[in-house]
């Protein structure tokens, strides 16, 4: 769809002329519904644990390409009206019409369209995009729009609380109404005076904000979101300079100790258990708002001042590193608190003249003014992948223009839970467009999630999305006016737009695919600056990356939000009942993209179906393993892989990213400290972590039935009699492995920034590096002597067992002169002689997986990320190119399901390597446990009893679409 503004070729002109819209997705003269084959289905939902039927509606109508899972979730979650009555919706057409017609009517009434024909185009295009699963609005839109209920369209709310009892009690009330409506809220409680300060009225000691958290927590636990059987979603933030910060940090960790004690005493302390309500602070996510001043004090090892809330004076000084350690230890114990980086957040704030950003919504993706809200919508990225495995940036941008227009229209008719929230939202019109299926998209393109190519692709797509959104926002400002708060914040808003543009200019593209998208993003940001200076902007914010839990299933996405793929094998429900275990359909497409022929693809897919991972898959080259890394399983992504992907997307988002950095159970406190510190350095706005099995209040099976990693297990396993054992103390000392008299060596001449040198390395018989000699100056010079001594020291260390990987990680990225261009095609740029030498040694002696973890690749390996690489390199071999061309490009049509019906089933319709799922598995998470024999550390769904899986900062149920707190 190409949308132009009436009266101007490059943007909006005079106000009141409206948008002139052209069709792109829908067909002139044909309603989108008439292009689709529809079918009737029965939706019956059962709790697998109890056998109880929890929902039943027969004869519902959906497009034939919608999966059983998608139709089940939409029917149970979004259809309105009492089940079993004529008032109940029974077709997707009714649901989409209820929403789309409301949006179209509001657009007409508020002057968004130039003519009636444009309103019709808007309605048809929006309908087409929704029924073809190209995007979805957030859940409150489907819950409320077009019904008799209040027209609440926002999923995210930020409240405010001041240092008074009236304000605190009002906080409880406002949160309750928001939870009742099915949404979540966050707030910063730092204005409440600490327990170390006096009350003005009586002179007594104040209770402190942590004590008031108890009342809010109890309220949230009582008022279930939207009347559902799940906990409310809430976020509580406290500034790092608050005098009660240590009490806040340790609050949930101490409750976790209580949970363990009660569990060991026989109480039911699982999430949703009968006795879990006896502990406190379990209904909120906690985050510490840290400043650059504090983080620099942590780096420098200096002290940090805690300030009184009433006077602002420093009343206590603490060791910054000690406080940072306490934060990380608490997160290690119970996954809370997360961190929010205050100075970074407010540096990208478009409305600083109105007020600072102090808090976020429960999942930390929406960050804006106090007493504000944000409505969300997310695009399905995989829908924009073309047959030639490139991303269709132009079509994506047209969809974004259309969707952001619809989102802005919704504010015209929306209702809000409080008058203050309504006023702020109408005045600032914050939107949150985002996407899902990034992990599946990257895999289908043959790009590793934790790779430079993957991050470049994600960065350019995110930049194009936000740039196009603000471009349309500036055009709308020329038609219906800028947001009410724009005038006082115009300079700041334009400054942030320039920051986004500058960040876009620094993106380093690696392939034709991402360079094409980057070119479109560059054009979009240029238009943002030009049109915004003329018209202003309609919206204070445009984009976030939300969890996309339930709506991700509605769009049949393999992955949610910015997340990588959960696992390589999926659990799939079938029409009429039954289930299948299938390999992700993006995997064959990725293998073909990487140059594998049909026979190889079939063998690798069959291996994945059997084992659930790619390790030792027949014919799969080790350097391609990274493309198939997942969130869980045998090749799960390293924590910093998650952080680096977030850092790639963050500069192109108005808000932040809902995502949890997963760490293994063996992770240390130091590793959590490093994640938090690196997240700050890389410019993230917020970070949350989760260490496997750190919480008791959820199932924690090893996959074999035992509950591992807890004190009670140790106690249960202890024998009745204590046997005294004598343990011999063994002292280990390193031994030197000397090189043979005659050994293989190689000499490399090099130039770094004009300085010449020679590198000679010798290896053991097994190929392991054993000695290094550097020649960098004239014999007898000081430099030559230092290099000789350095070479001897390193060589002895290697022979005593110091891993080469340790040297490489320590000496690469050292920066000093001479530096610059080299004459080595594998290391084109070097920050110093040492940086070059150790990169060269890594390439010569380290295996691919170790180098990849350090970001060191050869020229040939980097070529894999080039769009033409997998084709051009094959063509040079002269023989395999024809085979690849004969293997057709992956199609965008959905996988054919095996339907269990009365009619016979054609066996040829079964997807490759598909087979009946184990009886014990009812979701992908449970299937992964069966295949791997290890636990997926997530809670069970309250509705259907199946194991949920991570989605952003919460969990989502694959069986029924329920979430653990995020709407």
Q: Helices and strands in order, then pairings?
A:
Layout: E1 3-5, E2 19-21, E3 38-46, E4 53-63, H1 68-78, H2 92-109, H3 116-131, E5 135-137, H4 139-144, E6 156-158, H5 165-180, E7 184-188, H6 209-222, E8 234-239, H7 245-264, E9 285-290, H8 292-300, E10 303-307, E11 314-319, H9 320-334, E12 338-341, H10 342-347, E13 372-380, H11 393-413, H12 419-428, E14 431-436, H13 438-444, H14 452-480, H15 486-505, H16 512-535, H17 549-554, E15 569-573, E16 579-583, H18 586-593, H19 598-611, H20 639-649, E17 660-663, H21 669-681, E18 686-691, H22 711-717, E19 745-752, E20 755-763, E21 769-775, H23 782-799, H24 804-811, E22 820-824, E23 827-830, H25 833-845, H26 848-853, H27 859-863, H28 869-877, H29 881-886, E24 915-916, H30 924-932, E25 949-951, E26 954-956
Parallel strand pairs: 6-7, 7-8, 8-9, 9-12, 13-14, 17-18
Antiparallel strand pairs: 1-2, 3-4, 5-13, 6-13, 10-11, 12-18, 15-16, 16-24, 19-20, 20-21, 22-23, 25-26
Describe this structure in words.
The protein has 967 residues and is α/β, with parallel strands linked by helices. Among the domains are: 188 residues, Alpha-Beta Barrel (Anaerobic Ribonucleotide-triphosphate Reductase Large Chain); 113 residues, no CATH class. Helix content is 39%, strand content 14%. It is built from 30 helices and 26 strands. The strands form eight sheets. Strands 5, 6, 7, 8, 9, 12, 13, 14, 17 and 18 form a ten-stranded mixed sheet that branches. Helix 7 runs parallel beside helix 9, helix 9 packs across helix 21 and helix 14 packs parallel to helix 16. The chain starts with a strand and ends in an 11-residue tail after the last strand.
